[in-house]
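Structure in, sequence out. Go:
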């Protein structure tokens, strides 16, 4: 008997002794059986290798890739090409290394380029190395992938059977950044289908072409919240301060969802004077307290100089208008000379028994941030000492921090008494208040870093 035949017989005997069986229900035994075929050239082994390519176990498919790489030849190269497009990253890596080791085979290069388009991100470094070994520039594979994706998405956009497929294609086309994509998406953005119009708007944002701004601004007037949100997000991606006025109109005159999207879009625009003015306008006019506060914070972070006078008439109105004005007053961090008149209007609200507790808490926060008027500290401290236990928790917490920020006499004792409170909100407020008093280094505050409540840890 010839030596190769003896070697194959020895391999087969070893596989049998190890319990390897290509038909076993155990993936490990199937993988061992396929691994035993490394080095085999027998024609009768092809059915086992071909079945192993489609095995549900990645371990078996990896063993098949190794056996095929060792076998070589045109049929093995085609089979490795299929495995190089496997969903399992490790199978792709093994197949890529196998193809890289067969550079003389004619089909290696196109198969590697095709595999790149479908490869999981984790396997791409190995594929890039294989492409280099086969003499293919990675750019060629990337361009091929982009061309395939473009053609696929254009087909889906034109002949997609579902609205979801067309919407996804519209967004992907925008990500290509091509001028042709913008031309395809502009009419869709103005179409009657809200889902497709929203997707086209997002695609236009991804494309980054400033010529899309007029269409996106018109979409802000759509009655569909999805379309408005998509248009606002797209305008933020275009990063054009010229969109600030249009976004401000939506932020102050729409329902909460579109208005919130417009505020976030304004916050994402570059730092320009018109953006600061728009954020101030939203802060001073929005009827939604949370959005007015968010806009005020964004304006302050941009050093925008928001006027305080528009807040004065809003303070006299009960409800959301008053609450928004109080939160904005706290957020703007006005200089003392401008804070005094505003604080004088707020102080009576902090002690008004008829006022909603949430509004009184907002008034306390505003006075603490404004650090005005001079008599506010003693008045709030007295209220906390005399009525503290009867007040709602939110109001007590706001009072605690305000008294500390205003530097009222006896504030330290009032604050330290709440460090061991069973209320997480009051312990968090006490930690924040000690920071305002310059006593954040106390061991009691350090102990709060281990508190179970996240708000307490954050405040500490």
């Amino acid at each position: 008997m010839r030596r190769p035949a003896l070697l194959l017989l020895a391999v087969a005997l070893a596989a049998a002794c190890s319990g390897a069986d290509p038909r076993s229900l155990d993936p490990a035994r199937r993988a061992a059986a396929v691994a035993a075929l490394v080095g085999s050239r027998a024609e009768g082994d092809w059915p086992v290798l071909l079945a192993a390519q489609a095995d549900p176990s990645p371990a078996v498919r990896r063993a098949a890739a190794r056996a095929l790489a060792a076998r070589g030849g045109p049929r093995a190269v085609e089979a490795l090409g299929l495995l190089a497009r496997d969903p399992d990253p490790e199978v792709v890596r093994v197949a890529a290394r196998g193809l890289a080791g067969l550079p003389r085979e004619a089909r290696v290069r196109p198969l590697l380029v095709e595999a790149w388009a479908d490869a999981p991100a984790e396997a791409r470094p190995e594929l890039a190395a294989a492409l280099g070994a086969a003499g293919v520039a990675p750019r060629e594979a990337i361009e091929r992938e982009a061309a395939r994706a473009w053609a696929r998405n254009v087909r889906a956009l034109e002949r997609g059977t579902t609205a979801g497929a067309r919407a996804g294609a519209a967004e992907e086309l925008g990500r290509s950044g091509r001028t042709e994509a913008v031309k395809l998406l502009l009419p869709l953005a103005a179409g009657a289908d809200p889902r497709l119009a929203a997707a086209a708007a997002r695609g236009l944002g991804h494309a980054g072409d400033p010529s899309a701004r007029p269409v996106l601004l018109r979409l802000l007037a759509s009655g569909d919240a999805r379309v408005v949100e998509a248009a606002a997000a797209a305008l933020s991606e275009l990063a054009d301060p010229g969109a600030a006025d249009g976004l401000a109109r939506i932020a102050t005159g729409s329902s909460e969802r579109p208005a919130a999207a417009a505020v976030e879009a304004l916050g994402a625009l570059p730092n320009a004077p018109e953006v600061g003015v728009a954020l101030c306008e939203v802060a001073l006019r929005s009827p939604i307290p949370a959005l007015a506060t968010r806009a005020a914070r964004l304006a302050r972070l941009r050093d925008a100089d928001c006027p305080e006078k528009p807040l004065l008439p809003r303070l006299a109105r009960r409800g959301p208008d008053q609450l928004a004005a109080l939160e904005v007053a706290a957020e703007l961090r006005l200089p003392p000379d401008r804070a005094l008149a505003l604080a004088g209007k707020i102080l009576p609200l902090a002690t008004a028994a008829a006022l909603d507790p949430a509004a009184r808490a907002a008034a306390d926060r505003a006075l603490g941030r404004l650090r005005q008027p001079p008599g506010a500290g003693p008045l709030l401290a007295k209220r906390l000492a005399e009525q503290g236990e009867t007040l709602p928790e939110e109001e007590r917490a706001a009072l605690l921090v305000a008294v500390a920020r205003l530097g009222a006499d006896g504030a330290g004792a009032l604050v330290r008494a709440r460090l061991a409170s069973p209320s997480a909100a009051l312990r968090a407020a006490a930690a924040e208040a000690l920071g305002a008093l310059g006593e954040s280094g106390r061991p009691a505050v350090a102990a709060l870093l281990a508190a179970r409540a996240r708000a307490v840890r954050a405040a500490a």
